[in-house]
Each structure stands twice: as structure tokens, then as C-alpha cells.
Amino acid sequence: MTDMRSAGSPVFATTHWSVVMAAKQGDSSEADAALEKLCRAYWPPLYAYIRRDGHDAAEAEDLTQEFFARLLERDYLSRLDPQRGKFRSFILAYAKHFLAEHREKAGAQKRGGGQKLLSLDAGEGEEGYLSEPVDEMTPEQIFERRWVQTLVQRAFDRLAAEYVEVDKAALFEALKDFQPRQPGSQTYAQIGTRLGTTEAAVKSAMQRLRERHREILREVIAQTVSSASEVEEEIRHMRAVLNR
């Protein structure tokens, strides 16, 4: 199997903090484009937070749009303290501040003037929100759960792209949801027969897939923190969130 570590590349070559700080300076169109990608990537956790804060689906969509519009227009970035930390903490803190401002100004003007700077899949956000427990999670908890799910999905999407790039899409499709101990699941041998390879080769391919997914997930996490020492802390936090 081709080594895919050189195939494909991270969505962002720098950390999220460096993207935000570059956009704050306002001197880079590349930073602006990267910031827009960040907004598109991380709107589901914010949407879920706003929904659980008591807003209906339409309000949550409008407020999510306005929050990221302010980031893109540097309204909030202009007031950003250059202190580093976890990117999720930055988004959550500013979301709380944003909603507090919204409550103070409620009714003064139509939210965002109807302007939508990002094309977001509101249906996806609502579907994800409705999949969460109804009464057991606070807005902060549901934000963190959706944040973790977003990071895992980003890593999964990068992994899939790597397999496609080296013409291993069929192998990825066969292995991505494979649970050998689940009742009714196919065996390694059966998958090997379907792909025209051996049981041993399928087992090795599965091990490499899982290892590569862990590597990519660590890279994705590293982009959301300000130092390498925080990566392990974030991994432990993610496990705690998923096991909550």
C-alpha cells in the first residue's frame, strides 16, 4: 500500500491562531480566505450552542451568520487580546459576549440587516443539533461535543482525500466503518475476497488506516492550540467529552 503521509496536505498550513492574528492585521487576502474557511469549518458547534441557549432554528441560523460576519469584518478581531490558548475557548468566549450584546440590542435593528456573508448548510447544523440529548447537556457542553465531532470529521475527510489521491478509494470505503467484532459484520477474509487481496493484507491495511487517522487527528488538534504541550491535554479533553 502506498505511504500516504506525503499525499494530500492539511487544509491549513498554519495554526488557527496565526490565521486569526494575520487577518486581524488586515494585510493579507490569503489570511482573509483562510479565516473564511475557519468560519465555514467551525460553525456547527456555534450553531448548536446558540440553539441550546434558547433560540429557535431560524434565530440560530441568523445569529450564527452574524457572529461569523463580524469575525470576517474584523469587528471582534479588532478587540482581540493577542493572548494565545485554545481556539475553541476563543470562539466560545466571543460567542457568549456576542449573545450578551444581542440581548441588549434586541429589537433595535434586524439582525445583520439580512446580510449573509457565508453560505452555510443550516439543515446540517439543525440535524446535528437534534441528534443531541434534549435535556442533559448545557449550551457549553453541546458546543464542546459538536466541536469534538467537527475535529474528528475534519480528520476523517482528510484521510478520505488521501486515499482518493493514491487511488485507494475502494479500500477506504471497505474499511472506514469496518467493525470486525460487531454481529453480522464482514470478516477480514470476506473483504479481502471482495477487493481481490488476502486477509493478512486487509488486516495490515486496517492497522495503517487507524494509525494514519490518529496522526491526522493530532495534526488537526495541533492547529487549534498554541503549543505542542496542549495537544495531549486536548486529546484527553476530547475523550472526556465523548464519554460524558
Quick synopsis:
The chain is mainly alpha-helical and 244 residues long.
Give the helices and strands, then pairings.
Blueprint: H1 16-25, H2 29-52, H3 57-72, H4 87-105, H5 122-130, H6 139-165, H7 169-175, H8 188-195, H9 199-222, H10 229-243
Helix pairs in contact: 1-2, 2-3, 2-5, 2-6, 6-9, 8-9
3D structure, described in words:
With 244 residues, this protein is mainly α. The protein has helices at residues 16-25, 29-52, 57-72, 87-105, 122-130, 139-165, 169-175, 188-195, 199-222, 229-243. The chain has ten helices and no strands. The longest helix is centred in the middle third of the chain and has 27 residues, at 139-165. It has one domain.
* Helical/strand content category: mainly alpha
Low-confidence stretches: 6-13
Radius of gyration: 20 Å
Strand count, sense and barrel status of the largest sheet are: none
Order of helices and strands: HHHHHHHHHH
Helix count equals 10
User: End-to-end distance, in Å?
Assistant: 37 Å
How many β-strand runs? 0
State the share of residues found in helices, binned by percent. 55-70%
Features:
single chain, 244 residues, mainly alpha, 65% helix
